[in-house]
Amino acid sequence: MGIKIVGSGLYVPTSKLSNKQLESIVETTDEWISTRTGIANRHIVSSENTVDLAYESAKRAIEHGNVDPSEIGLIIVATFTPEQLTPSTACLVQSRLRLNHQQMIAFDINAACTGFVYALSIAEQFLKAKTVKKALVIGSEVLSKIMDWEDRSTCVLFGDGAGAAVVEYDDSIEHSFYLNSSGDEQGALKTTKLSVNNPLHQEEIEPIHFYMNGQQVFKFAVTAIKETLTTLLTQNNLSLDDINLVIPHQANKRIIDKVVKDLKASSEQFFLNVSDYGNTSAASIPIALNDAITKQQIKNGDQIMLIGFGGGLTWGGCIVSI
Ligand SMILES: CC(C)(COP(=O)(O)OP(=O)(O)OC[C@H]1O[C@@H](n2cnc3c(N)ncnc32)[C@H](O)[C@@H]1OP(=O)(O)O)[C@@H](O)C(=O)NCCC(=O)NCCS
């Protein structure tokens, strides 16, 4: 009973923003960003928005898996930077993909950087119940539209992008999910509130910006990855050597280095591509998954562990097969 990835795709905008370019936007240096985060480049949109990125990654996942689109009954998009509050990104992607067959379910979810893993767990329920045959799970973010481009402590970390996976349920696989959240730690990673302006109550309209307590989040991230990894191994009666590759959310190379050191693991067991994309929130895991396939670091039949952590706070993971 488990999720199998049958198609994978990624799409990032062509326009890039290097650390060097950031030196002329905020008071920072390429050296500071590289050594503190491992990030060299990020892609940011010049004309596209969340639906464009989601659609392109979905199209590529369907092509990669040679999937018959009529078998897709569910689209879930994980995002906290949608294009519109309604219709959902998922419905807009459904329309662009022309998935107009009789029964389709499409909706967005928000679990910040854990969104893709949360979305996969929801898809698993629909697949297990045989409500749908295949699901299209997408993480798509245009974080550049909510960055405070004067705040050097956040704007250098994030990028725009989307990743998608077509998934199905395989009865021969025995894998479980582990998900968690802690709303009490909501202040560590958050956006501005949407202001209320109605005939009875007026608030100042603030731009939507993203804030973070970097050091608190760093400590949380290391703990969250270790807790998720050890829980999943125990739940599934596996050791780390049974997993072909761990794909953690890509936020900061130093977070992953610390986890590897604490677990006395090998860095080769953990996939890393934050250097090229920065932190793309809900898109980071499916982008990394596709990158790992393209770079032939994983192949058909492998068992992969996906681990997310982020705003909420939320964290969790799963073991999937490809
Ligand atoms: C943000 C992060 C890279 C900062 O690294 P750090 O080593 O903790 O750095 P600090 O916050 O201690 O800041 C050190 C100094 O660098 C400065 N600084 C912050 N951003 C800077 C930048 N872009 N360029 C240059 N200096 C910067 C700070 O102002 C501070 O200066 P001070 O000592 O004069 O006060 C790190 O905390 C981190 O990665 N946290 C997790 C963030 C994350 O992953 N968020 C998303 C999770 S989903």
UniProtKB/TrEMBL annotation:
<dbReference type="GO" id="GO:0006633">
    <property type="term" value="P:fatty acid biosynthetic process"/>
</dbReference>
<feature type="region of interest" description="ACP-binding">
    <location>
        <begin position="250"/>
        <end position="254"/>
    </location>
</feature>
<dbReference type="GO" id="GO:0005737">
    <property type="term" value="C:cytoplasm"/>
</dbReference>
<comment type="subunit">
    <text>Homodimer.</text>
</comment>
<dbReference type="GO" id="GO:0033818">
    <property type="term" value="F:beta-ketoacyl-acyl-carrier-protein synthase III activity"/>
</dbReference>
<feature type="domain" description="Beta-ketoacyl-[acyl-carrier-protein] synthase III N-terminal">
    <location>
        <begin position="107"/>
        <end position="172"/>
    </location>
</feature>
<dbReference type="InterPro" id="IPR004655">
    <property type="entry name" value="FabH"/>
</dbReference>
<keyword id="KW-0808">Transferase</keyword>
<dbReference type="Pfam" id="PF08541">
    <property type="entry name" value="ACP_syn_III_C"/>
</dbReference>
<keyword id="KW-0443">Lipid metabolism</keyword>
<keyword id="KW-0275">Fatty acid biosynthesis</keyword>
<keyword id="KW-0444">Lipid biosynthesis</keyword>
<dbReference type="InterPro" id="IPR013747">
    <property type="entry name" value="ACP_syn_III_C"/>
</dbReference>
<keyword id="KW-0276">Fatty acid metabolism</keyword>
<protein>
    <recommendedName>
        <fullName>Beta-ketoacyl-[acyl-carrier-protein] synthase III</fullName>
        <ecNumber>2.3.1.180</ecNumber>
    </recommendedName>
</protein>
<comment type="similarity">
    <text>Belongs to the thiolase-like superfamily. FabH family.</text>
</comment>
<comment type="function">
    <text>Catalyzes the condensation reaction of fatty acid synthesis by the addition to an acyl acceptor of two carbons from malonyl-ACP. Catalyzes the first condensation reaction which initiates fatty acid synthesis and may therefore play a role in governing the total rate of fatty acid production. Possesses both acetoacetyl-ACP synthase and acetyl transacylase activities. Its substrate specificity determines the biosynthesis of branched-chain and/or straight-chain of fatty acids.</text>
</comment>
<dbReference type="GO" id="GO:0004315">
    <property type="term" value="F:3-oxoacyl-[acyl-carrier-protein] synthase activity"/>
</dbReference>
<feature type="domain" description="Beta-ketoacyl-[acyl-carrier-protein] synthase III C-terminal">
    <location>
        <begin position="233"/>
        <end position="321"/>
    </location>
</feature>
<comment type="pathway">
    <text>Lipid metabolism; fatty acid biosynthesis.</text>
</comment>
<keyword id="KW-0963">Cytoplasm</keyword>
<keyword id="KW-0012">Acyltransferase</keyword>
<feature type="active site">
    <location>
        <position position="249"/>
    </location>
</feature>
<dbReference type="InterPro" id="IPR013751">
    <property type="entry name" value="ACP_syn_III_N"/>
</dbReference>
<dbReference type="InterPro" id="IPR016039">
    <property type="entry name" value="Thiolase-like"/>
</dbReference>
<feature type="active site">
    <location>
        <position position="279"/>
    </location>
</feature>
<keyword id="KW-0511">Multifunctional enzyme</keyword>
<feature type="active site">
    <location>
        <position position="113"/>
    </location>
</feature>
<dbReference type="Pfam" id="PF08545">
    <property type="entry name" value="ACP_syn_III"/>
</dbReference>
